[in-house]
Specification:
This protein is of the alpha/beta class. The chain has a single domain, classed as TIM Barrel, CATH 3.20.20. The N and C termini lie far apart (45 Å). The strands form two sheets. It has a five-stranded parallel sheet with strand order 2-3-4-5-6. The chain contains twelve helices and eight strands.
């Protein structure tokens, strides 16, 4: 399958990965989800996404499809774009979710390699190639090494770019972030469209290496938009103030569960979420000291970025 890039909406800038609100029955709270999407749109965001911090790994396929359909409906109503995370353990499973996202009206999808087994370079390429060849939508190739357990070699990413450059975006997350990003940029002649993927912690360095955007959490969308706009304007006084605080906040999130807990806490504080319920079980203890530090950084960000 092939489609002209002219049909696609170019995605760039701050693309928050949505947190999934739950009701008292621990099911999707659709009303709050719409409020979250509308709220980030009010911060100057044009595109939202789902990802690991959306708790998709703890959802059934039916729940993931429900989330996809709701997000696509609300973004369409609000004239925004959506990126839906669709990675599964086999190409066939992934393709099924991608086609569902296409049919639901997603602007693009994000796909990570299988998590359960370590694939060779050729197997990684074949996995992504199968997804590209059986779908039409733009795809963000996510090098989610922190979750997958291994990184995708830059040579594989460059092969994918050469084959599918009209439809492909990248979200590299393997360390060293900056050097690997530059390697991918150079291997594609500076043409790869790359998103920073560390919650904004490495955005300043990544911006200097040519990223087209960042995929942070939704809770600090306004601060990330201010940082992105400051980078575009070259306002280094503002960049240095905001970047340090963002990095400090991300340092409080060493695990996925920590990220989810802090993000939901801050969304509730800003009256976007009604609760901080999470899909159980979780392994992170959001103790009073961590909460106090997150609140301190948040208050500082409000002071300098709003």
């Amino acid at each position: 399958m092939s489609t002209s890039m002219s049909q696609f909406t170019e995605i760039k800038g701050v693309v928050p990965v949505l947190s999934t609100p739950l009701n008292s029955s621990h099911k999707l709270d659709s009303k709050t989800l719409r409020r979250e999407i509308e709220w980030v749109g009010e911060q100057g965001v044009e595109t939202v996404a789902t990802g690991m911090v959306s708790e998709i790994l703890r959802m059934s396929l039916a729940e993931r499809r429900e989330l996809t359909e709701a997000i696509c409906t609300y973004t369409r109503e609000l004239h925004m774009n959506s990126i839906v995370s669709c990675g599964q353990e086999t190409p066939e499973q992934t393709i099924a979710l991608v086609i569902h996202a296409q049919n639901s009206g997603a602007s693009a999808v994000m796909v990570n390699p299988p998590i359960a087994s370590k694939l060779s370079d050729d197997e990684v390429f074949d996995y992504f190639a199968a997804v590209f060849n059986n779908t039409d939508i733009p795809i963000v190739v996510q090098d989610a090494s922190g979750y997958v357990g291994y990184s995708i070699n830059v040579t594989v990413l460059a092969r994918l770019f050469n084959e599918y450059n009209e439809r492909i975006y990248f979200k590299p997350e393997a360390v060293p972030i900056g050097q690997r990003l530059s390697d991918l940029r150079d291997a594609t002649g500076g043409k790869a469209r790359i998103f920073e993927g560390t919650g904004g912690a490495h955005l300043v360095d990544s911006f200097a290496r040519g990223v087209i955007g960042t995929m942070p959490g939704a809770d600090l969308s306004w601060a990330m938009v201010k940082l992105w706009d400051s980078l575009l304007a070259g306002d280094w006084k503002k960049i240095n103030l905001i970047n340090g605080a963002i990095a400090n906040m991300v340092n409080l999130m060493p695990t996925l569960d920590a990220y989810i807990a802090i993000e939901k806490h801050l969304l509730k504080r800003q009256n976007v979420f009604e609760n901080t319920l999470k899909i159980e079980p979780v392994s992170f203890t959001f103790d009073k000291e961590t909460q106090s530090e997150a609140e301190r950084i948040f208050d500082y960000l409000v002071e300098i970025a709003r």
